[in-house]
Amino acid sequence: MKAWIYRNLLPPLLVRVLTRGQRRREEVENFRGLYSQFVSQGDLCFDIGANLGNRVRCFRALGCRVIAVEPQSRCVRQLQREFGADPQVTIEPMAAGASPGTATLRTSPMHVLSTISPEFVEKTRQSGRFAAVSWTGTEEVGVTTLDALVAKHGEPRFVKIDVEGFESEVLAGLSKPLSAFSFEWTPEIPGNAVSCIRKLEALGSYEFNYSWGESMRLSRAQWLSADAMIRVVEEFVGESQNFGDIYARLVSTP
């Protein structure tokens, strides 16, 4: 029986393990070129909406310390399994928002689409991009703020925010400029991206860039002003295939 298991079951299992490992290595290498423009070894990063940790993996490969903020219980369990023994990763099992408290997280079988934002659910269904997706579960989750995270863990060099339409609420919980950010851009709810840009503009002098989808490449050789970035957002309103991330870096403070 043991010989049969070795011959018939172990090879496919090993292939899956090796394939997953190879995918993760390729993913890290893909991300490295982008994030190395913002961070280097020893820097502190906040990963707001850490999900299963693909950005945590990348930041750690660059030698960064990471605060992984994630409210979904199943994702938190995976983060704890993979990073729980790493002293350079701190897992905060909660959401981030405008003020501390609690919120209702609408969960989906597609864990990357779980959200606190009812508008995200409604608008992406209407556009057809996620028409077949269900958000049938809920979790009551704790909410912290960026200000509280900075007070607890220190000032990060980079803050990545990917929380399915709740990005502007996350930035609403920040009262001081930080060095650099990325936040998800959902074309069905352009007001969310505009609010994020205006919030950062109010905190300091930022310049902006963007990447499409998961390309992990900045689209502009020259960085844009806040107004120019908003014009880009407005140009693609409703074009649900054109989603991505907006990047911001601090030039100076008021």
From TrEMBL:
The keyword Nuclease does not apply. The keyword Repeat does not apply. One of its GO terms (molecular function) is methyltransferase activity. PANTHER family: METHYLTRANSFERASE, FKBM FAMILY PROTEIN, SLL1173 PROTEIN. It comes from the Bacteria. The lineage of its organism: Bacteria, Pseudomonadati, Verrucomicrobiota, Verrucomicrobiia, Verrucomicrobiales. It comes from Luteolibacter rhizosphaerae. Pfam families: Methyltransf_21. InterPro entries: FkbM_mtfrase, SAM-dependent_MTase, SAM-dependent_MTases_sf. One of its GO terms (biological process) is methylation. Residues 47-181 form the Methyltransferase FkbM domain. Keywords: Methyltransferase, Transferase. This is FkbM family methyltransferase.
